[in-house]
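Colleagues,

Please find the record for the two-part complex below.
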Amino acid sequence: MSETPSTPAAEDPVVRITGLHKSFGSLQVLRGIDLEVRRGDVVCIIGASGSGKSTLLRCVNLLEVPDSGQIVVHGTDLTDPDVDIDKARRGIGMVFQSFNLFSHLSVVDNLTIAQRKVLGRSKAESWNIANTNLNKVGLGDKVHSMPTQLSGGQQQRAAIARALSMDPDVMLFDEPTSALDPELVGDVLGVMRQLADEGMTMLVVTHEMQFAKEVADVVLFMDGGVVVEQGAPAQVIGDPQHERTRTFLSRVLNPVQVEE
Amino acid sequence: MAVSKRKRARVVRGVQYGILVAVVILVILFADWGAIRDAFFNLDAAGTQVPQIFTSALVNTALYTLLGFAFGLALGLVLALMKLSSVPPYRWLATIYIEFFRGVPALLVFITLGFGVPIAFQIKFGLYTTVMLALGLVGAAYMAETIRAGIQAVPKGQLEAARSLGMSHGRAMITIVIPQAFRIILPPLTNELILLTKDSSLIYVLGLAREEYDLTKFGREGLNETSSLTPILLAGLCYLIITIPLSYLSRYLERRTGRKKAAADTAAALEVKG
């Protein structure tokens, strides 16, 4: 993938975050985040655990309610108390670290239930869309399987297909491969790479530096609840300017190396 | 001194079996078998009980129980949701209700509904309504706690996934969380059904017509008419006809839940190896 930001569009960004603050009790998790994601961009958020990157992502669809700041997704200000959050979330796909497939429903029902109950699609239409998306993630033969019959990698791909079936404007990935055994990571990253190639706008919290390097348009390094460094992957991962970024990257890229 | 642990365990177990066998032999030797047979296995007395004990009393007991269970389950679900509500007064109300009806004997609830409420409010419930309310009110208190635990046992991620797909909180609860909660609590709910089956015998305080008799009342009437304990034994066996299949069902459901999880773990393990 290109390492320079794709097509500079005149239109508004899909996601615009300004001055975002969030605390859990006395713990300040986000301390003033500003972020713009343009249509078709893949933004990878990297950083140590506890840096606030997952909380930032969960704020984008208001699974965490920010204390202050503004989050505008597709022209809708989510922090406006009058906003219909259920409606706004339809356009924001979310993929979780722990997959969260509905365990009492078959794979296809996982993909159709929200289409029917939320978007009001017919059974036939939702089935078609589900089938298309399952084929896309390579699970065309798992339509009637129960989630427990799938491997972790298959569950995560089904979860991605579930989110895609709502035709989202933007997809959020919260450490999508962190719960997977190493040999199953590749399939999931492959699906995400394919989505990026098709022009999906994506925000990805990840520890997969290779993926960030190759697929991201913008890489954000977070530490202590602020964005320390952001820019093209070649710059942030290849030639980090800040000491904290360098320390983090050296730990992630050389995990065996013992310090001191 | 040098008795191995295993040998000592064997000796201890042998002593336990010995005591058990001795007790059984003593009971057999000293019991008055003739009197027991006359009292409990009187075929003439049994003859007066069939077929009504099956066609009427057993059916009534099952019907009373089901009515109470259905109402109790619905009310229990409402109470469980109140208990989990973010609105404090709902939580208080549910807690007060549960503590009250768990702590009061079911018999008192039957008497209050059967006689107290008609006096106080000039409302006379029919028999079925009274049974449904009385058993349901008591059962709901127990089931509410079971259902609440079940809802809390559903992983938080399930609700988050549903909400992130645009479902409202209510819809997510109804379509995703509550169905999963009921799968988890099927075994304990089956036990509640068994308890209610036995509690349904308290209906006798309401005063019943003959065709309304439940098993216990039917058996006691039989005792009065035949001066034999056989009808009581028969009634007891009829309860077992209901409760033993239920407890097998409960155990089967428990095993199935466990097996599903084991199968999932195996599948995941195989996937990793393959």
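Chain A has one domain: 15-252.

Comments are welcome before we finalize the supplementary table.
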